Amino acid sequence: MDSIADRQFRALAVGDSQSRRRLIVTVAGLLAAGTAAFLLGLHEGFIFWIAGSFAVAAVAGALRAGVVPGVAATWSVSLWSYTFPPLVGYVTGAWGPASRYSYPRMAAFAYGSARAELRGGLEASVTSGLRLAVAFGVVGYVVGYGVRRTVDRAVASG
């Protein structure tokens, strides 16, 4: 038998399946919009993806989709931002140092080829991107969950 604490922990950690599906659809829509914008030349830059990552985590909290799916969704947005631009540059052959096909970074350095840039983006998404996803995922989840609780209480009180 599951104890109440076990059920509460499971609900917090992994949420329910319907909420996870909604989160997946939300993230897929965000990534599809980002892909279309990038391919049309409307790339907004790294700040947009930081805000998008935090928003995904807040949506996970508001939907009560679970912290782990929220962090995973946040990391998938981070992974996209680090790997999609170099992948497009690699496939099209349009890559150049410090171009829109480079992944976002704080230091002003670039790799010597599109393939190296793509590998660097994958490496950065696992190291920096994963840390960013955990931090933004947890904080964003708490914010979204808090907003949801506040709204639920306001609706219940009249």
Brief rundown of the structure:
With 158 residues, this protein is mostly helical. Helix content is 77%, strand content 0%.
Descriptive account of the structure:
The chain crosses the membrane at residues 21-40, 46-67, 79-98, 128-147. It comes from Halosimplex aquaticum. Keywords: Membrane, Transmembrane, Transmembrane helix. The chain has one domain (17-147). It is mainly α and 158 residues long. It has five helices and no strands.
Tell me about the biggest sheet? Answer: none
Structural class comes to mainly alpha
Share of helix among residues?
over 70%
Shape: elongated
Figure out the total of helices: 5
Q: Structurally, how many domains make up the residues?
A: 1
Average pLDDT: 85
Multimeric state: single chain
Query: How would you spell out the order of helices and strands?
Result: HHHHH
State the end-to-end CA separation.
37 Å
Name the poorly predicted regions.
Answer: none
What share of residues are in beta strands?
under 5%
Which value, in Å, is the CA radius of gyration?
Answer: 18 Å
Question: How many strand units?
Answer: 0
What's the topology here?
Elements: H1 4-14, H2 17-39, H3 46-63, H4 67-92, H5 114-156
Helix pairs in contact: 2-3, 2-4, 3-4, 3-5, 4-5
